[in-house]
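Worked example 2:
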Amino acid sequence: MTPEQTAAESRSSIQELGGAFAEDPKTLRRARQLGLTGWAFYVAGRGGVLGDVDPAIVGAAIGFINTEAILDGWASARRVAPPPRIARHHREECCRWGRERLELFHGVAKLIDLTERVVAGADAAGMPLFAAWRALPVPDESAGARAAVLLHLLREHRAGAYLLAIRAAGLSPLEALLAEPDGEAGAIAFGWQPPYPPPGLGLRRRIVAEGLTNRIIGQAFAALEAPERVELIELLVGARLTAAAPTGEYPVV
């Protein structure tokens, strides 16, 4: 398996595992305990690692969320606490989710070994969110927490690469969202409201952008040998099954 093939094959697993904690009911409950909406916790939790910056900077780094939605979430969060502090709470939820969902995964040690090498070998040029999250020390409190943070880093790396790729392919973030399978529903979820631009060449250009993304991501996967890349794909599938199992039940994979 080539590095680019690994990037393509790992896409859905990384998207799911790296972002699952943000949608977890316990994370949303933590937001309420802090006096935040789930949206404010997501925006400041994800972007607060950049510092207490102008929200336009956060919007530029994330890329796909409508500017007004960023402004709303950021302003709401800042009324409660500085965004860097909220980012620490958000990261704690990532660790908590990992302890609960990945700690007993049979392949967690090997998953950590492989993902650490990919994360360390990734070029962060043009990816400020990934660079900022990677600069933080990875927790060593538990294997599950460590794995969850590394998976989140891989997700941020792919998100940053995809943002670069869609711009190189001639798409705006909104046009890219509209060209994805969720279409207008996906655009609404990211704060964009109709009327929307006509589809145009969006679908074709999004396919080009996916290829560019895999090429960028593949450079990081080149840190692994070919058999290790195959093993990583299998471990990601196993981790998805374990994370999706009811709490306390761990499937044999």
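The CA atoms of residues 68 and 191 lie 8 Å apart. Residues 248-253 have pLDDT under 50 and may be disordered.
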